Amino acid sequence: MPLLCYNGSMIKHIIKLTKRSSYSYSVTIPKEIVDKYGWRSKQKLTIEDKGRGKLEVKDWRNKK
Fold this sequence. Notes:
Mean pLDDT: 83
CATH class: Mainly Beta
């Protein structure tokens, strides 16, 4: 997985959108990000569409 650095501080992961069925797609989250937030396999997450091509992924229990 290639990493790109912008301005020496921001690291972005380039990943592909994968079609799982005729109704859903999946994105693989890099291990570094999963470890950073303490997520585990099969943990429930919420996805919120923030517009302009941005999605917000959060733990479904965390109400922040």
